[in-house]
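Homework help board

Subject: predicted structure for assignment chain

Our instructor gave us this sequence and asked us to write out the predicted structure in token form, then describe one feature. I got the tokens but I'm not sure how to describe them. Can anyone check?
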Amino acid sequence: MVYPSSRRTTGPSGFARGKNKRQRVPAFAGSAFSTAGRLVMTALVAMAAIAPVHADEAEDKAAALVAKMTREEKIAQTMNAAPAIPRLGVPAYEWWNEGLHGIARSGHATVFPQAIGLAASWNTDLLEQVGTVTSTEARAKFNLAGGPGSDHKRYHGLTVWSPNINIFRDPRWGRGMETYGEDPYLTGQLAVGFIRGLQGDDPQHLRTIATPKHLAVHSGPEPGRHGFDVDVSPRDLEATYLPAFRAALVDGGAGAVMCAYNSLHGTPACAADWLLNGRLRGDWGFKGFVVSDCDALYDMTYFHYFRADEAGSAAAALNAGHDLNCGNTYRKLGEALDRGETDEARLDRSLVRLFAARYRLGELQRPKHDPYARLGANDIGTPASRKLALEAALQSLVLLKNQDAALPLKPDTRLAVIGPNADALAALEANYQGTSVDPVTPLPGLRQRFGSDRISYAQGAPLSAGVPVTIPETALRSDGQPGLKGEYFDNPDLAGTPRVVRQDRVVSFNWDQVAPAAGVDKDRYSVRWSGELLPPGPGDYTLAVRVARCFDCSGHDPVRLYVDDQLVIAGNAEDRRVAAGVHNADGRNVEAQLRFEDARPRRIRLEIEHQGQDQGLRLEWLAPAEAQLAEAERAVAQADAVVAFVGLSPDVEGEELKVDVLGFDGGDRNAIGLPPMQQAMLERAKASGKPLIVVLMSGSAVALNWAQEHADAILAAWYPGQSGGTAIAQALAGDFNPGGRLPVTFYRSTKDLPPYVSYDMQGRTYRYFSGTPLYPFGHGLSYTTFAYDTPRLSTQMLKAGEPLRVSVRVRNSGSRSGDEVVQVYLEPNATEQRPQLAPHQQQPPIRTLVGFRRITLKPGQSREVRFELDARSLSNVDRAGQRAVEAGDYRLFVGGGQPGTGAPGEAAAFSIIGHAPLPK
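My token output:
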């Protein structure tokens, strides 16, 4: 299947304008409507002719429909789980869906690299293709759920609450992995590409609606996120926190936007009239709908104390221009109306926006010529989308160090593969993820590429002290083979003969809305794993069963773990009845502490009964540190070189996690170095004297100071998605030349950073950090080299407000084909002294990214790369938050990274005359 890149123009209305370019889609069999869906559709057909809804007709049709509703019916439609109105032919609609890096939480899907990894590609066309696959699979799942006119479950709708375009201002933020990094321009451009892929080419029939989030000035801390207030300066607001949203809505044409949990200057973002009615709808001309982050309106009463009750908070949000409540606070709108705190005209206005969106999606009625009607199961996880997932993983790889050409590895190299992320499913899929069909972790990826007989493996260390990790295949055995025997039953009682019996290397599965094995129902099954546990040495062990809990469901899955036929773990989130000596945890991890006096094998048996809506499980442990290090040493002794997979995990960095161990706090980090137990593993491996290649898998910057000094090569792989192991193996082998660039600054220490709670940009990101980073924003090496000619400018004397055209010739001066990311930075002329201002006066940016393009060149090949910098790209923001193009002398650096960082490139000077203020 081919996913063509979309090319269109968009208007400030938030929807595309121009010719109707219908997206090419494959012709596969569609899905039948449910009986209830047919009844609703019949009623709707009686109201209106079935025809494509033109963008300029959608609001009129929505207004006519809203006018027929009672007040109670209107109020019920303002929350994410909107009920049906049978008398008007309105089907129920669940607005909540997720698609951060592939469609999420609805079963099998193509799982791309986490957003921060996609950002490392610096490739807007790639983001558009990823968005296209994501929305195509969303449409397919919507059709499988019944399509237009029928009810559907959460995560099966067409309003996708992505992308996350908050600025990753501080590496300690746990949700930074969901963003496109620290730079407003890079974030905005990647967002535009992704949004165009999500929404498609046809403004009369959007494929899905994109919802950039979280407006505005939201990036932690996670603990306390529901009630914190940001006192952001006018300059930082305009120069850093809003540009990506402006690009996403004005240039990208996103049809929706999500407001954030936090307050701005004492007013919750979802009730900020100046932000929603003023900047969003007034300055930017946005005509789509605003949805709250989930329970953000509830937070206005109970965390921000903004209003005395939920009715008051509901009225404040509606009056400010907010439309859709993810949550239930808008159920109090009737009370607010009765008290005169808002009026029905405002309610109608919001409903017209919401129903106009549903008409544009074709969700209320199936058009005669529906380009998406035949999308179905065959359009999920296609060969083309799997190929794109691999390509995205490859393009996300960033080579940080390559001393003495340690990489690529020679084909006959014997490798010791060590580290907690070498075989970790969570480090592939990240958060807000779908379920991969055939995920490839690094260990099998390297075995496939280099040969299993050339790979020795040891886990070596946990992620961090107190954080259990999946028990590795080296510690599990059944019938003489690594892993455990898995018996899969087509009932929840472990009764009768298992439908499937297989060998599972490890017990680590994401089964969110999917069957665990062929011939087993996804909603009714049980599994028994049995075999032997092989401790690497004597000592104290923690065994844990991590169940992926559904957070909005009834009932959870019971689990039982036996060691030497003794029950050591039993329970679920609801049932705390356990046998004597059994430890039961809080519903996410169930743990037991055991002491093994020797390393002899122990019988082990794990059982799960799938009776609720839980989403998979992992069998984990914490093993004695010295025993794991000794095991890693034995693996290293068998090898010519060491590949160590270190970093973080969505188990320790993420959204509002219940994590409180050394270095981590509620999903955030309070230290940015590599956790000490992983550091000890690296040092032990390096002591062997063999080449050490470090592969960092994380969603954020990790201060690899020791590795930068002592490792032979370092590759950043992020959370690379379903094909991550294959991509990493190809890069290490030299089948692919890494060409990604860092979308964030890697600092050396938290001492380099301002306080995490401060949203002042001084001292943050490459634009304002005056120190020496470990790796700068935009950094990335290659197996080849590139050379730049001096940039050519359309003029050396530019009138303020006019565009500046830039061209540069780039040549591959090395011996391998490779990708170069050509970056354009604007900075004051180096001959001018940067003004020294007091901290409270706010320094202007040191430099600003104003253009980039990823290109591929063969050895000796050169290419002319052209940029046109518009007035906004050449502008500055003053202390009052006013943006303008200012007179002065400037310099443009065009190269493979920032100037002064060792990246190849050349500069050219020019001057601007006059003054040109720009609109918000």
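Reply (TA_rk): Your tokens look well-formed. For the description, you could write something like this. The domain at 464-622 is CATH 2.60.120.380 (Jelly Rolls). That's the kind of observation they're looking for.
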